[in-house]
Design a protein that fits this description.
The protein is an alpha/beta fold. It has 10 helices and 8 strands. The protein binds 1,3-dihydroxyacetonephosphate (13P).
């Protein structure tokens, strides 16, 4: 199965960031062809422009979140159909930064919301990347598998199994901490037991050039969802190349 190396730029990225993508595209062109699919999810404001600008490259683009409805009176929201219209191939749904409570007046998403969004992405003809992952307290309590099992049961689409799952332990995101390789292997095998054999299961949480190879070598790790290290072409390229060695 081809690895998917996906960059989640979160709330980073302006028109000028195209230069990082141009550097990445040039490096990918110069190197031996990689077996990995490469995706960047920039802020929604850049999806259409980057898709058009890099249409001749092997880099695909995606959204970071979407509304479940195709259109409507939802100020500030973006539908999966709009991402399709902008040229996106994937949309991330259920990231822990969206599942988290944003505070008074903010939205936080539950499993049912994530499932509706994932089904909306499929309806629009795109592929959802559905994020799951336990908190630090849940892992310390020995409940990681149970928590992720419940998230999968509640968030995976019922209409199709053409999706990608990203396991992102919340405590590993942006912290430089990662689970042990054995813990990643255990969780990915657990997720695999709940899904079809050819569903790609990505690992996310402090993936860097220095640890990408060993993480991507684990059975049932079929790619990575990369935050901070996806913003710099040199770092992301090294992770892409580590994914290219994965069969
Ligand atoms: P970091 O790679 O910055 O830890 O972020 C991971 C993440 O949240 C990707 O969606």
């Amino acid at each position: 199965m081809r690895a998917l190396i996906a960059g989640n730029w979160k709330m980073h990225g302006l028109a000028a960031s195209a230069s990082e993508i141009a550097t990445l595209a040039a490096k990918m062109k110069d190197a031996a062809p990689t077996d990995a699919d490469v995706l960047i999810c920039p802020p929604a404001t850049r999806v259409a422009a980057f898709t058009a600008k890099f249409s001749g490259s092997a880099i695909q683009f995606g959204g970071q979140d979407c509304h479940a409805d195709p259109s409507g009176a939802h100020t500030g929201d973006i539908s999966a159909e709009m991402f399709a219209d902008a040229g996106a191939a994937f949309v991330i749904v259920g990231h822990s930064e969206r599942r988290a409570n944003f505070g008074e007046g903010g939205h936080n998403e539950g499993d049912a919301d994530v499932r509706r969004k994932a089904e909306a992405v499929l309806r629009a003809g795109l592929t959802p990347i559905i994020c799951v992952g336990e908190s630090e307290a849940q892992r310390k309590a020995g409940a990681a598998l149970e928590v992720v099992g419940a998230q999968l049961a509640g968030s995976l689409p019922e209409t199709s199994d053409d999706f990608v799952i990203a396991y992102e332990p919340v405590w590993a995101i942006g912290t430089g901490l990662t689970p042990t390789l054995a813990d990643i292997a255990e969780m990915h095998a657990f997720i695999r037991s709940k899904t079809r054999i050819d569903v790609r299961i990505l690992y996310g949480g402090s993936v860097k050039p220095g640890n990408a190879q060993e993480i991507l070598a684990i059975d049932d790790v079929n790619g990575a969802l990369v935050g901070g290290a996806s913003l710099k072409a040199d770092d992301f390229y090294q992770i892409v190349m580590a994914g290219g060695g994965k069969q």
